[in-house]
Amino acid sequence: MRIDVLTLFPEFIDAAAAVGVIGRAQQRGLLAVRAWNPRDHTHDNYRRIDERPFGGGPGMVMSNQPLRDCLAAMRAAASEPAHTIYVTPQGARLTQRRVRELAALPRLILVCGRYEGIDERLIAAEIDEELSIGDYVLSGGELAAAVVIDAVGRLQDGALNDADSAAQDSFENGLLDCPHYTRPDEFEGESVPPVLLSGDHAAIARWRRQQSLGRTWLRRPDLLARMTLSKADRVLLDGFMQDWLRQQGSTAR
């Protein structure tokens, strides 16, 4: 997969894509990330990239010409069709389902805005999709682009050392992940749940499923509301809820 990024700070994208899973994916030839600076496509001595907004108001707006010329150069750099995404708080919320869909594409172009954003005419003419990583505002799109690169890049075949890791992530089955523990089995008076030391794989699987259901009920009930639970899942969740309410009662006393 190839991901090209339009950004005023290519060094940020290069650094973010050089480490961890994404860095290894590039070393293995599974992913290619390239950053492009639209200032390289300006036609004035000052390499100006922004103008004041029509109608007045604070801030500046990124200009049409250098961004369009940069996008044209990006698209011409490779033969694969490119799906072009503008990362913006006004976009649709990025979800794990959408990440998986994007990960199956051969090529993405990510456009990072700055200032008050980019000219609306460019969005209408050049952008296929607008995506948001959350209901908050950043100083630019680079952090959001780095999130998309990481989320999509780690799903490329061979990027993770254990392919099952991605399948067990939060949101993959509509639920949050269960708790995880490692050695030692006792630390500062706190012990690992005995079932995880039992060697009973069926019991461990039931416990993990119950914890995943319960954690979602506690932290993201909106996710549960979208699901139709099986009878077995309902029994597990009811058991978790009863145990949790009993513990809350004990704590209150």
TrEMBL record:
Gene3D superfamilies: 3.40.1280.10, tRNA(m1g37)methyltransferase, domain 2. It catalyses: guanosine(37) in tRNA + S-adenosyl-L-methionine = N(1)-methylguanosine(37) in tRNA + S-adenosyl-L-homocysteine + H(+). It is found in: Cytoplasm. This is tRNA (guanine-N(1)-)-methyltransferase. The lineage of its organism: Bacteria, Pseudomonadati, Pseudomonadota, Gammaproteobacteria, Lysobacterales. InterPro entries: Alpha/beta_knot_MTases (IPR029028), tRNA_m1G_MeTrfase_C_sf (IPR023148), tRNA_m1G_MeTrfase_TrmD (IPR002649), tRNA_m1G_MTases_N (IPR029026), tRNA_MeTrfase_TRMD/TRM10 (IPR016009). The keyword Transferase applies. Residues 1-225 form the tRNA methyltransferase TRMD/TRM10-type domain.
